[in-house]
Amino acid sequence: MGIQSKYVGVDPKLCTGCSICELICSFTKFRRFNPKESLIRINYNYELGYLEGFKVCSQCGLCINSCPTGAIYRGDGGIVLIDYSKCIGCLSCVNTCPNNAIVVVDGKPYKCDLCGGNPQCVRYCVRGALNVS
Amino acid sequence: MSLKWGYAGRILYVDLSKGKYWVEELKESLAKAYVGGSGLAAYLLWNLIDSGVDPLGPENPLIIATGPATGALAPSAGRFALVSKSPLTGIWGESHAGGFFGPEVKYAGYDMVVILGRSPTPVSLVIDDGSVEIHKATDLWGLNTRDTTNELRGRFGKDYHVICIGPAGENLVKFASVMVDYYRAFGRTGLGAVMGSKKLKAVAVRGSKGVEVYDPDKYLEVLEDILWRNTEGPWALPAQMSLGRYGTPSLVTAMNAIGRLPTKNHWTGYWEKADRLSGDELLKYRVSRGSCFSCMIMCKHITKVPDGRYEGAFSGGPEYESIVALGSNLLIDNIEAVIYMNQLCNLYGLDTISTGKVISYVFECYEKGLISKEELGGVEALWGSEEAAIKLINMIVRREGIGNILAEGVRKASEVLGRGYEYALHVKGLEVSAQDPRGHKSVGLTWAISVRGADHLRSLTTVDELGYRDVAAERFGADKVDYVCDRLSERYKGLIVKDQEDLFALVDSIIMCKYGTMWPPMYYFDFIAKLLPPLTGIKEFSDVKNLRLIAERIVNLKRCFNLREGVGKESEVLPKRFTEEAMPTGPSKGQVCNLEPMLREYYMYRGWDYNSGLPYEETLERLGLDYVANTLKRRYRLPRLGHG
Amino acid sequence: MVRVRIHGILKEEGGVDVVDVDSRYFDEVVSKLPEEVRKVLMKYSKYLIVLVNGRRVYDLDKIQLQPTDVIDLMIPVGGG
Description:
The complex is a heterotrimer of chains A (133), B (644) and C (80).
Chain A lengths: L7 E3 L9 H11 L1 E2 L6 E6 L4 E7 L15 E3 L5 E3 L9 H5 L6 E3 L2 E3 L9 H5 L5 E3 L1
Antiparallel strand pairs in A: 1-9, 3-4, 5-6, 7-8
Chain B lengths: L9 E6 L4 E6 L2 H7 L2 H12 L13 E4 L14 E6 L6 E6 L3 H7 L4 E5 L6 E6 L2 E6 L8 H12 L4 E4 L2 H4 L7 E3 L3 E3 L4 H7 L2 E7 L4 E2 L3 H16 L4 H11 L4 H7 L21 H5 L2 E5 L9 E5 L9 E3 L3 H7 L8 H14 L3 H16 L18 H13 L4 H4 L3 H8 L8 E2 L2 E2 L9 H9 L13 H5 L1 H8 L4 H4 L8 H18 L14 H12 L7 H21 L11 H4 L15 H12 L1 E2 L4 E2 L1 H6 L3 H7 L12
Parallel strand pairs in B: 1-6, 7-12
Antiparallel strand pairs in B: 1-2, 3-4, 3-6, 4-5, 7-8, 9-10, 9-12, 10-11, 14-15, 15-16, 17-18, 19-20
Helix pairs in contact in B: 1-2, 2-21, 2-23, 7-8, 7-22, 11-13, 12-14, 17-21, 17-25, 21-23, 21-25
Chain C lengths: L1 E5 L1 H7 L3 E4 L4 H6 L3 H9 L5 E4 L2 E2 L13 E5 L6
Parallel strand pairs in C: 1-5
Antiparallel strand pairs in C: 1-2, 3-4, 3-5
């Protein structure tokens, strides 16, 4: 497709494992605090003290063609979005995603959409470990 | 209205004697009266036992406590508490820890876990949402805390969080700790021994739920406020550049500069070699900077010794208290040795503070010829001897030789040995922490009146450490600032310690961290009044006057717990070192701590009678603690302000 | 000679931990510190905490120093 989209990236050396990105994401999207519903996930190894895993949608767009109702599309800035008026909750996109970055909440798929352009996780990361790439 | 915002609304009870568990509803009236955390745990503990229970017996409950903010995005909302009757002191036992275990308890669907009874054989408690299982842990018994944690996470899943005891708790060392997520510690008051007495090796928890928010729009304002305070507010830079960057070790040289860095069993408060244990010295050994769950200050660090005698030493910390207890307190200036000993205490599950003060008691007795090398099993307990300190730690954990007596804590040890009482530094049986009342007078009051004993975390005031005049003026009035901020003045310390004790009662119930409240003074009662209502939906929390009332209620309940055990004002005394021995060196040279005027002032502000050491009955009535008054009256004649 | 001890981030960024200065007044003391240190003090001037012999001093212009005085420079820290 050739469209370069922005995505949320991390500098692992700066991450302290506070999980505030996960908390603000789940709160922004679902109005409650549950890291397992966050669209950005960290796996911080608190025994050895380093960021072992980091998962957020890279806006690659592979899920777009997996959707039988055409609910997934590229919006402004190339960010991949889901139109919930068309989404039937078949969750084919979840299986297609190479990063496992699509989260299922209350039966529907959700993915990082950079909060429409001003990602809250980046704002709330006091350490500045998160960025928009 | 059922409790479902902030709170889980459920308390899990586990009876290890019967191998049973059940869930009870957390009543809204209780949440409104005690908030949660150690405040609510105080209510539960008061009602679960009567006076005289053996802390190491099956009747003594062990309570894992979270607050309404635990698991949410709130200031350091990863912290949680462990509450029980202390085997070290025989009175109120409470400890707090950070890490990530606390939120997981809430995510599993519980506000509290109350552990009753005693298992006949070693077990671990594994909680996975609604599934609660008691597993055999005979194969884990004897393992250090790191290996225990790795074993359980390997067996049940890496997403489980673990609290556990090490050999110290298993051997019922009276100041054994409970370790959390490897390096965080429920350090003080010997709660590790309570777990050991129950043959409970570990608790592992995993949860899939979240924390609901009553008014998300309003709560978003609170979140933006928290973000502002930590990025642009007046305390943002100091929080990041002092506490964040260096961790609590940043306090070593600052406390030395004001002459209250405990040195040589608190003989003095100033050490020429303090720089060798400073925050920036420790920075050289840091391999990572970490954070507790939901905290923007991020003051945790992991250190490693790359070579030399202690090559390979690897642990979270050491924190300020540990650096003092195992360093300047013992005249050990080798930071690598301190890192190693801190790791040793973490692996064994030992309170570094009590351990250090027991060892310094031995060192001073040895110096003064009160104890012989033979009695110490060949240990040459010389000041500055890393070897001696390490040997004593091992003897204490194994209860080997004199270690068996030292494992009882410094008060009992000095009684059993019949000597060195003046070098056994404790209040109510809890060894003193890394402050010196001669250089910071309010500490004397804090130690004397705190419900745990010589405790720096229930009411330590910082407005009078380096002198934060703006904060003092705002909270106490411009007319009092000169005295309030003067660390060497006893005036108004009753007022500020009482105020801080109230604030911390809430902090320990919501649960937040002392960093952000004790210092920097980022959050105060007015913030709490903004935080709790949109989170919980409880409007009563929006009134600062009511919050202060709840705080007083919690403090009074805990103080009365001690009274019920027969421990009162006669125990509110300081070791003579602080009241009679003028500080010999340093910036606070010549000072002693004059406790009485501060104590009198404190009693006045508390609404307690100084002469009897008891609460005025009106105070308990005002706070809705009639049930407490009725119980106390079985033993005491409560004074009344009014007549008739 | 007044001893000036520099702590924490001021020490890390200024590169100096102790300086002995011959002076009676605070402004003069600062002017005699190494340039890197002066720059750092300017950077953190809003947060600067000055102790003289362990006592906090707020009115820096009014300080009159004795030859054996010790000055500690740091940014706010506390709570331990």
